[in-house]
């Protein structure tokens, strides 16, 4: 299904987004929330300090693996805060935004800020459009039958069973971010390559030194693998419901107008405040795509205005509960995976092994 299937042959009315923007701005939902982000940042920094103290105090022990989920959750939250910084939801000027983003991304989280900004801006410009949205051209999942048929070897085998392998594949997300960071910083394809390289190397050097000093080599390896896998699953579960299982778009999407281009391939999460806090506000994906610089604290009230406006102009507004989201995602991944010709998965796996 494409966006054109949903909107028919008609052309989107001019000014749809302009009217919505006026309503949202009039409600005061576009103003920055410095106190909200100051409190959120302070809580996360305090939590990080507390976890590091616990890590050192616990020392050489296999009980350290019990801290790995807490570190994964915390670093996921720090990455989500960095996401808001990159969208200029926190600071107005670019210089402050970039410096804060590099410190938070490269030094604290260990991920290239410059790479993420480029990747994420392309995603926002063309959501769910193969060849333009990098999230729709993922190495982990195939989103269309054409992508599935282009796979070879082990990749084809994984594509055929991607629905069944959904959560194991998500565990590789953090590794993928680490590889992308390494490649980007080696190539120097960011605005501040020296600063980004220095801070990223400092992050990973400090993390490695801490693990080596506190843990045995085997414990260090086990902790790192568990932490990385859990962080990947956490971030994957945050971002997957947003667009996976939703209509793919094509060149026609740009002609429908900005509002429909962003709303139709996006899905909101229907959940309580606690779950939305875990998602860093990104469960309100429709509102985030329409107003990327909107503070996370304003997304919930904005959703009421956007939902009502979409009903008013006849634009589908997708929402689903958490379990329903993942059912829809797995159903779509299963359908696409099964478009790989029967028997080719076995041959592809054998070819990869050889």
Keywords:
354 residues, two-stranded parallel ribbon, 2 strands, globular, disordered N terminus
Set down the secondary structure blueprint.
Elements: H1 3-7, H2 16-26, H3 34-58, H4 68-86, H5 94-109, H6 113-125, H7 145-150, H8 153-160, H9 166-170, H10 173-187, H11 193-214, H12 217-243, H13 258-263, E1 268-270, H14 273-278, H15 285-290, H16 296-313, E2 319-321, H17 322-337, H18 344-353
Parallel strand pairs: 1-2
Helix pairs in contact: 2-16, 3-4, 4-5, 4-12, 5-11, 8-18
- Give the neighbour order of strands across the main sheet: 1-2
The DSSP helix count reads 18
Give the C-alpha Rg. 21 Å
Overall structural class, as computed from helix and strand content, comes to mainly alpha
How far the N terminus sits from the C terminus, by CA atoms, comes to 38 Å
Strand content: under 5%
Secondary-structure element pattern, one letter each: HHHHHHHHHHHHHEHHHEHH
Biggest beta-sheet profile: 2 strands, parallel
Number of strands: 2
Q: Calculate the mean pLDDT score and round it.
A: 90
Low-confidence stretches: 1-13, 345-354
Which geometry do the CA atoms define?
globular
Helicity range: 55-70%
